[in-house]
Write a structure and sequence with these properties.
globular, alpha+beta, single chain
Length: about 240
Amino acid sequence: MCNWFISGCRPLIFLDGTDIKNKYKGNILVAIAKDDNDDLFTLAYAVLDSENDDNWGWFCFHLKGVLVSHQCMVMRRYPLHNKKHWSSIFKKVVYAPSKQEFEEHINNIITSMPLAREFIVNSCPQSWANAWFPGKCWGVINNNMAECWNNWVKPARYLPIVAMVDHICIQIMEMMHERREATMVMIKKLSPSKENFLAKTYAQYRSLKVRKASGLSFEVVDGDKSFVVDLSAMTCSCRG
């Protein structure tokens, strides 16, 4: 599973826990990833007596042990305090891909809320803001992928523990088989979701001006902003 994760998924991990609904109770802790078609990929899960710091520590310790030998990526955690309230206020700040845009939105907010900047600094923006996140997150801010997994295994959560684990294993096996069969008939280079995204993006940004710098490096001008695109390194200074 880890080799498939490294070769076919984005280096992002979503962590979540969900209640077991049978008479024995307990929790399922899970680590989820996104594959190249934006579908969920089950990386690891564990059945434990409860969701607490000790059990999460045990789960993450073993998860990290598996990933370290495969160039483990940056783990991203999501702040829980006043999450709904602040996400509505700082949505543009959170999703800003560059530090320049981040500061622009912050300056607009602190005009009416002077204490906003202090709050942002004290709440570790590198943990929740695109512009300050040390790794690559492709605009992913929420933990919805893990919530999808919880709903996906919902029928299994009512079964006895052994049957529950077997049921989830079968679900994963069937999902992997269906996706393997689907990839055999693909004729394009990218996955279906990315082909559609590329077509929409191409139509949307045809008006941008492009200037060649050197080799495979280009300057892309968008209004009063410009960014550097390096096709050899597959990077853009906009971080979008």
